[in-house]
């Protein structure tokens, strides 16, 4: 029997609560199939670990994670630890070390999910965001000069290598081609006169290899507006690291809320483990109360199943989330329900098992 070894970094705040439910669902799927299994190894890394050790993860953490088939991450960040430390020294360093250059975030309005937009058909919100995930505005390149002095200068550089830009755009074209959908590129070439002019140029060059894929390009500000006023324009979308991070929160707002927003950090070559995580953060205000919404984490488990080649089970998990939303009975308070985190996980496992 094939056993997938999964490194679990439950992390901070509601992370451990929601990750338990994702694991419950993965175990249920494996039990149903009978032909494969998961073995979960827990790592106690995150902000509490930082307060005890001065590090967000073990010194040889990347080395330890390397041998796993995938990483399942809950949430990072907690008051008391600066956000740029918790993000950089755990989440971002894993993405970079394992060359997880593709961040896949579905923005799909499932039946039963709340959409604040008027006059929008449910099927009109069905986008797949493909965000560049290792460079761009999150390259970490920059400097802080003359700290605290009158002539203090801070530089934060966006890094767009030809290899990095071309490979994410090509991945997006391949995805659009496979799905028979259009591809929209989102940039900002009028203001970012080096990086985004280059991005647009590479998009144009790569598009020549995919004449069958219908394309569009928007400036990021216009795209943010159009996602709300006319979301059906967008099918597969490719964009840079920062723009993708921001626009997928817009996506979450129109597709049922941040509690439903899932993400996969993929190393397409399979040289390193890929990582699956909800888009949301650690929600310290509700941590420890057992009411965090586990649906995004469960949806990201479905992305893990897709990644391992079990697309039918991945779809089964998303279908179960949709059924739960339509039933409108077992939902956490952020979705106007009164159920606990574990009751939602139990119900999803039940639906999958029936
Ligand atoms: N679920 C992981 C988490 O806590 N993410 C918070 C976050 O700020 N992520 C930024 C990013 O995805 O780049």
UniProtKB/TrEMBL annotation:
<comment type="similarity">
    <text>Belongs to the isocitrate and isopropylmalate dehydrogenases family.</text>
</comment>
<keyword id="KW-0560">Oxidoreductase</keyword>
<protein>
    <recommendedName>
        <fullName>D-malate dehydrogenase (decarboxylating)</fullName>
        <ecNumber>1.1.1.83</ecNumber>
    </recommendedName>
</protein>
<dbReference type="GO" id="GO:0000287">
    <property type="term" value="F:magnesium ion binding"/>
</dbReference>
<dbReference type="InterPro" id="IPR019818">
    <property type="entry name" value="IsoCit/isopropylmalate_DH_CS"/>
</dbReference>
<feature type="domain" description="Isopropylmalate dehydrogenase-like">
    <location>
        <begin position="5"/>
        <end position="348"/>
    </location>
</feature>
<keyword id="KW-0520">NAD</keyword>
<dbReference type="InterPro" id="IPR024084">
    <property type="entry name" value="IsoPropMal-DH-like_dom"/>
</dbReference>
<dbReference type="InterPro" id="IPR050501">
    <property type="entry name" value="ICDH/IPMDH"/>
</dbReference>
<keyword id="KW-0479">Metal-binding</keyword>
<dbReference type="Pfam" id="PF00180">
    <property type="entry name" value="Iso_dh"/>
</dbReference>
<dbReference type="GO" id="GO:0051287">
    <property type="term" value="F:NAD binding"/>
</dbReference>
<dbReference type="InterPro" id="IPR011829">
    <property type="entry name" value="TTC_DH"/>
</dbReference>
<dbReference type="GO" id="GO:0046553">
    <property type="term" value="F:D-malate dehydrogenase (decarboxylating) (NAD+) activity"/>
</dbReference>
<keyword id="KW-0464">Manganese</keyword>
């Amino acid at each position: 029997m094939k056993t997938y070894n999964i490194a679990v970094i439950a992390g901070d705040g509601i992370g451990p609560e929601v990750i338990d439910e994702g694991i419950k669902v993965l175990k249920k799927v494996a039990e149903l199939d009978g032909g494969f299994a998961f073995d979960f190894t827990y790592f106690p890394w995150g902000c509490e670990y930082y307060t005890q050790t001065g590090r967000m993860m073990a010194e040889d953490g990347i080395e330890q994670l390397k041998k796993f088939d995938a990483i399942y991450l809950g949430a990072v960040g907690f008051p008391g630890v600066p956000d740029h430390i918790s993000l950089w020294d755990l989440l971002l360093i894993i993405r970079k070390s394992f060359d997880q250059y593709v961040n896949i975030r579905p923005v799909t309005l499932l039946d039963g999910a709340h959409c604040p937009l008027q006059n929008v058909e449910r099927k009109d919100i069905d986008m797949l965001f493909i965000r560049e995930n290792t460079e761009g505005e999150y390259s970490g390149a920059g400097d802080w000069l003359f700290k605290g002095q009158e002539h203090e200068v801070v530089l934060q550089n966006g890094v767009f290598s030809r290899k990095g830009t071309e490979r994410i755009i090509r991945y997006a074209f391949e995805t659009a081609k496979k799905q028979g959908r259009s591809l929209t590129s989102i940039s900002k070439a009028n203001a970012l006169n080096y990086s985004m002019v280059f991005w647009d140029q590479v998009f144009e060059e790569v598009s020549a290899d995919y004449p069958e894929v219908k394309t569009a390009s928007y400036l990021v500000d216009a795209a943010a507006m159009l996602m709300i006023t006319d979301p059906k324009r967008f099918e597969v979308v490719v964009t840079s690291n920062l723009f993708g991070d921001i626009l997928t929160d817009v996506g979450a707002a129109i597709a049922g809320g941040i509690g439903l927003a899932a993400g996969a950090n993929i190393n397409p070559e399979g040289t390193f483990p890929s990582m699956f995580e909800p888009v949301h953060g650690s929600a310290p205000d509700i941590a420890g109360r057992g009411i965090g919404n586990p649906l995004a984490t469960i949806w990201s488990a479905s992305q893990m199943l897709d990644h391992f080649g079990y697309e039918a089970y991945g779809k089964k998990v998303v279908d179960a989330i949709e059924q739960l939303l339509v039933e409108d009975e077992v939902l956490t308070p952020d979705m106007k329900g009164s159920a606990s985190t574990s009751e939602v996980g139990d119900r999803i496992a039940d639906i999958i098992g029936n």
